[in-house]
Amino acid sequence: EYTITMYDTKTRELRWNATYFDYAASLPEDDGDYKMSHFVSNGDGLVVTVDSESGDVLWIQNYASPVVAFYVWQREGLKKVLHINVAVETLRYLPFMSGEVGR
């Protein structure tokens, strides 16, 4: 049994929890069909996902909490997806380089 609990870091209030009785995730593998690259900042939870072929920014999200892993759901279960940790300054620069600002 695995329990994941999230608390608000400012108020220390319980936000949510989930209990899993069966959990498994396969290790990441070099999947040529997966066309996204995920970049995360080390401290603030900023995530930028880009198209691996074109370099276009697909989405930007700030989770305001460190991101430690990415998973995709497939028929076989969870599959861990690679992500790259970079400095927040570098990560905030990516949308400017791709032309995504102002769209």
UniProtKB/TrEMBL annotation:
<dbReference type="InterPro" id="IPR011047">
    <property type="entry name" value="Quinoprotein_ADH-like_sf"/>
</dbReference>
<protein>
    <submittedName>
        <fullName>Endoplasmic reticulum to nucleus signaling 1</fullName>
    </submittedName>
</protein>
<dbReference type="InterPro" id="IPR015943">
    <property type="entry name" value="WD40/YVTN_repeat-like_dom_sf"/>
</dbReference>
